[in-house]
Amino acid sequence: MKVYLSGEIHTDWRAEIEAAAKGLNIEFSGPVTDHATSDDAGIMIMGAEEKKFWHDHKGAKLNAIRTRNAIESADVVVVRFGEQYKQWNAAFDAGYAAAKGKALVVMHGQDHQHALKEVDAAALAVVETSQQVAQILHYVVSGEVK
């Protein structure tokens, strides 16, 4: 099974899920989590831009190639909304996954429940912890509740 781990990049939630799901037949993928590399990949490959808008535009389009391909090839898409930053990209990824008919799992704290109610409504599961995501994956793969 292929699982794409989208969303916030400032904590180790991806590593927690991968460690808890060790031994399951799951191939994990995710975005580039080095913020500077993700932001600057477009200009590093296609050349510098004088205006910040075009700098960001190149990076966003280049990252969209990776993200769209990963979401389209995934069986399950997990999107984490962190506590500290507004993650518009995570919301976009959740919407894209829902539009593609992907099994969507959304993870966030209770303080985001109202703001993410439409995203949550599109998800097949809404959880708060990495451990809950790992338990969902274990159940989906094995049919057993761990």
Describe this structure in words.
This protein is an alpha/beta fold and 146 residues long. It has a domain at 2-31 and 72-142: Rossmann fold, CATH 3.40.50. It is built from 6 helices and 5 strands, in the order βαβααβαβαβα. It has a 5-stranded parallel sheet, sandwiched between helices. α5 links the parallel β4 (103-107) and β5. The protein is globular and about 55 Å long. The mean pLDDT is 95.
* Second CATH tier, the architecture of the domain at 2-31 and 72-142: 3-Layer(aba) Sandwich
Strand content: 15-25%
Biggest sheet strand line-up: 2-1-3-4-5
The CATH class of the domain at 2-31 and 72-142: Alpha Beta
What profile does the largest beta sheet have?
A: 5 strands, parallel
Brief summary of the model shown:
Helices cover 50% and strands 15% of the residues.
Question: What attributes does this structure have?
Answer:
five-stranded parallel sheet, 6 helices, 146 residues, alpha/beta
Write the layout of secondary structure elements.
Blueprint: E1 2-7, H1 13-20, E2 27-29, H2 35-46, H3 52-73, E3 76-80, H4 88-99, E4 103-107, H5 117-122, E5 125-127, H6 130-142
Parallel strand pairs: 1-2, 1-3, 3-4, 4-5
Helix pairs in contact: 1-6, 2-3
